[in-house]
Each structure stands twice: as C-alpha cells, then as structure tokens.
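To whoever is on call:

I kicked off a structure prediction for a single chain this morning and the downstream step that reads the tokens threw a length-mismatch warning. I double-checked the sequence; it's 225 residues and nothing unusual in it as far as I can see. Pasting both halves so you can look.
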Amino acid sequence: MIILAIDTCETYCSAALIKDGRYLADYSENIGRGHAETLLPTIEKLLRQACLTWHDIEKIAVITGPGTFTGLRIGLSTARGLAISLKTPCVGVSALECLANQSMNNDAIHACIKGRGNTSYHQKFHRSSKTGKLEACSTAASLTHDDILNILTEGCNGHIIGSGAEIFNTSSLSNHNTFTSVPCNMLTLGAIALTLDPILNPADPHYLRAPDAAKAKPIFPFANQ
C-alpha cells in the first residue's frame, strides 16, 4: 500500500510517500512559516521523484495535533481535500502518539510538544514488556511547565521526546531521564496509519486549548430589534 504521510503541526513541514515501511520519496524541513505555499508543491515533487501519480496514493495519513493552529489547519485541509478528490481513505494520528511510538524506551515515555508561553502539550505512555504495544497512561493535555515538571519528577528512567524535551532537559532530571527533541517521523506515522480505520480515526484537529483570537466585540451598542 502506498501511503501519503503529512505533518504540519509545528514549524516542520513534512511529507512522504511510503510503501512497505520504506520511503519512496520524502521531505522534512524546519521552515517556520509558509506551510500553505510549501505543502502541495512538495507533494507534487515527491510524486515525480517516485514516478507516481496522484491516483497511485492508496491512503493518506495526517498528524492531527496538537500544535500550531494555522499549521494544523493547512495539513488537515490538504489531506481531507485530497482524500475527497482522489476518493482515497484518510486517517488522523495524534502527534503525541506518533512521537511516543518513535521511542523504544521500556519505561515511561513522555511525549511533549512546545506550546504557547509557559505551557506545553504532554501525554504519558508506557510500552508493555509483554506485547511491546504502546499504552497511554494519561490524557493528552495542555499543561503549564510546572505541572509537567511535577509529572516528570514522579518517576525515573523516562524518555521525554518531542519539541518540548529541550525545555525540561535540566540537571535535576537528566540523571534519570533521556531527552530527544525531534518532530514526528513520517515512517512512524505511516506504520501507525497502515491498519487504522478512517471512520474511527478521522482527520479532525486536536487543538487541546482555546484559540488565542477572541470574537470581536461591537464598538457601538445595537438597539434591540
């Protein structure tokens, strides 16, 4: 199965064409902004590199967040638009779940993504020693850095992975934890998405916090009609 994997939830713009657990063509760059101008031309370029057409795509996998509001909307709208036009199934995968799957740690795995101000997105996972499967130990949430720090200090021998890892890489935690500041890996995303049901795993955004923009208030009062 040929899978198109997409991630624009943070400053990275990533896309890849994957088949049988290997890249046919891939792109990932920390562009900061400009995902809207970059994503579709990049996918077209990847198709040419792999000598494929749009209709060769058999499934689309997209990161659903959490992350930046604008970036998420670009990736999700692109994935959903392509799925409709190509009549191709599309599945959504949490960025925190994808990051946790990139860790081979057998103890606690803390997926952590930078948020705004003094907050970050966090979710704790554990890999079963019997089955090797990843299990969520907490609900994904937007938390203050102090709250996340308290969670990290509760245990030991953990792995903090994601863009938020560098925030907590301090001397008090480094003795018992490892830190990996990386974006979502497209091969991992493709592997997770391979067996997912589009109905049970829709490409819907997981913002985990309220938007920064507030609804505008009228300057002048309006008479009741």
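Update from on-call: the warning came from a stale cache, not from the record. Cleared it. Sanity check on the structure: Residues 147 and 166 are 16 Å apart (CA to CA).
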